[in-house]
From TrEMBL, chain A:
Domain ABC transporter: 4-218
SMART domains, per the entry: AAA
Organism: Paractinoplanes tereljensis
Pfam families in alphabetical order: ABC_tran (PF00005)
Keywords linked to the UniProt accession: ATP-binding, Nucleotide-binding, Transport
Keyword Nucleotide-binding in record: yes
Protein name: ABC transporter ATP-binding protein
Recorded GO MF terms: ATP binding; ATP hydrolysis activity
Database matches in CDD domains: ABC_DR_subfamily_A
TrEMBL record, chain B:
Superkingdom of the organism of origin: Bacteria
UniProt-recorded name of the protein: Transporter
TM annotation in the entry: 46-71, 92-120, 140-160, 167-185, 291-309
Keyword tags: Membrane, Transmembrane, Transmembrane helix
Length: 228, 320
């Protein structure tokens, strides 16, 4: 059982290759951290995984259904929080209304509040709830916490872990913030220059390599990709 | 997906509904006046003005209901939210086009019904509901044009991905189409009838226009009973050849003084003596309803093609 399985996955935008011949085999049941410098192909890989774009060549198989939280967590500004939950109910056969309403209450969102007036942290929580309440097998999050203050970020990541436990789902999230990755992820993929630099369980990677912390490990692989 | 579409359509529907109600009230009052009028033809100028206004309806529907439908989602990034629900994006597009498209057709149909009813006495008196301007503001043709304008707006938004730019482009495009269809397309829906009309001095005086801007030997604004004239040839001599510019100019500038009255006076007498004729191409008035249905089909067919284009592009294109 694999969450993500890529073979020779390539995505080109014009002549520029965002991803080039990537092979990946991520076992299920992990929270996967996807890191790499700007332009390394993180967003491209996640958009391919949720079917928003299609590969130029190669294949990418994703286990089961996907809940996607897009970058900047877009919501309908004129819809209230309750409208968004109603939308989830209308558009998803497997919608778990009880889960959605409970989570919204737990993170302190007012159902009558217009989404356009939510703070960044509240909006991210709403987007995460929408993605999770369709009960996906895999949650995919593209830089979900990048624009949040440390407190909102911490709350968001706790929510994420809570959802993953409750749904029994896997998750893949990309981030620039290695602290976030270290906090919640137990599997790591380092992308650099459109290729997979390293991938594996965090504990094993740390045991196999000399750098003692996740941060040093990632920086080590990123700088190797640049040097090449 | 239908409920989602209706929820998003709430505000535009409200705005459109208010305008529609105001227009309907005005047309009902106008209709009461025309039906009670002793000389309904007095309202002919009003009807011409309203026919022009009716032409703006599909342009507004395209710009305000059609253009933002997809473009706004792509502009604000909400497509990344809604396309990651469990509804495939082609179905998402189809339902949006169908639901709002039907509303646009219903609105245009109501307006057209009210205007057609209000115009009945005027059309009967003036006999010109088949004319280039009036035809498009009567019967079922406006329903087709509204569907076309709306779908053009939505699909253009999918291609341009900017709401304001799409609104401007679509508004102008729908107006342009409404100039092109009556002049270039409609005359050919069915093979036209032809007739040769002798250009006696009397006949020339009944024309509304004589001579082109460059002094070409043409007449304009001729009338033929119970028909929409789609083409008028230049003035022709008995052997079927065009009257020479020279001969025309001679009559135009140096016609012998006869003291004749009539619109064109001595010029008409001078030309009348040359044994001239014009060849008219026309569509008889009995074809009004066949033409209405053909025009509806033409617009609906084009709208369906545009919708198919949209379904193809939304599946194939990359949306960041």
């Amino acid at each position: 059982m694999q969450t993500l399985h890529a073979e020779k996955l390539t995505k080109r935008y014009g002549r520029r290759a965002a991803l080039l011949d990537c092979d990946l085999a991520v076992p299920s049941g992990h929270i996967v951290g996807l890191v790499g410098p700007n332009g390394a192909g993180k967003s491209t890989l996640l958009k391919l995984a949720c079917g928003l774009i299609r590969p130029t060549s190669g294949t990418l198989e994703v286990l089961g259904s996907v809940g996607f939280v897009a970058q900047d967590t877009p919501v309908y500004a004129s819809f209230s929080v309750a409208d968004h939950l109603r939308m989830g109910d209308w558009l998803n056969p497997a919608w778990d209304a009880a889960l959605a309403e409970r989570r919204v209450a737990e993170v302190g969102l007012d159902p009558a509040q217009k989404a356009g007036r939510l703070s960044g942290g509240q909006r991210a929580q709403l987007a995460l709830t929408l993605a999770a309440a369709k009960r996906p097998d895999l949650l995919i999050l593209d830089e979900p916490a990048a624009a949040l203050d440390p407190l909102a970020r911490d709350a968001f990541l706790r929510s994420l872990v809570g959802f993953v436990r409750e749904l029994g789902a896997g998750a893949v999230l990309s981030s620039h913030l290695l602290g976030d990755i270290a906090q919640v992820c137990d599997y790591l993929i380092v992308l650099g220059a459109g290729r997979v630099q390293v991938a594996g369980p965090v504990r094993q990677l740390l045991a196999d390599h000399r750098p003692a912390t996740l941060e040093e490990l990632v920086l080590d692989y990123m700088s190797r990709a640049v040097a090449r | 997906m239908i409920r989602m579409t209706l929820r998003q359509f709430r505000l535009p529907a409200l705005a459109g509904g208010v305008l529609l109600a105001l227009a309907a009230i005005y047309l009902l009052r106008l209709g009461n006046a025309t039906h009670a009028a002793r000389l309904p033809v007095d309202y002919h100028q009003t009807m011409l003005f309203l026919a022009g206004g009716a032409g703006l309806v599909p342009a507004f529907l395209g710009a305000f209901w059609g253009a933002p439908l997809i473009a706004r989602e792509l502009e604000t990034g909400t497509h990344r939210l809604v396309w990651n629900q469990s509804v495939p994006r082609r179905r998402w597009l189809t339902v949006k086009l169908a639901v709002v498209g039907l509303a646009a057709m219903a609105a245009a149909g109501l307006l057209s019904a009210a205007l057609t009813w209000a115009a009945v006495p005027v059309d009967r008196a003036a006999g010109d509901r088949f004319s280039t301007v009036m035809f498009g503001a009567r019967g079922v043709a406006p329903i087709g044009c509204a569907a076309f304008g709306f779908v053009l707006g939505a699909v253009t938004g999918l291609l341009i991905r900017r709401t304001l730019a799409t609104m401007a482009v679509v508004f102008l495009a729908v107006i342009a189409v409404q100039f092109a269809v009556p002049n270039l397309l409609r005359p050919h829906y069915l093979p036209p009838e032809r007739v040769t009309v002798a250009m006696t001095a009397d006949a020339i005086n009944r024309a509304r226009m004589l001579g082109g801007i460059t002094g070409a030997p043409i007449v304009g604004g001729l009338e033929f009973p119970d028909a929409w004239i789609t083409h008028t040839s230049e003035l022709r001599t008995a052997d079927g050849r065009p009257l020479s510019d020279q001969a025309f100019d001679t009559c135009f500038a140096h016609a012998p003084k006869t003291g004749a009255t009539g619109t064109f006076g001595d010029i008409a007498v001078c030309l009348g003596e040359l044994d001239l004729h014009v060849d008219l191409t026309y569509q008889p008035n009995r074809r009004f309803w066949p033409f209405q249905w053909i025009e509806l089909a033409v617009y609906l067919g084009t709208a369906a093609l545009l919708a198919a284009l949209g379904r193809w592009r939304i599946q194939r294109d990359t949306f960041a």
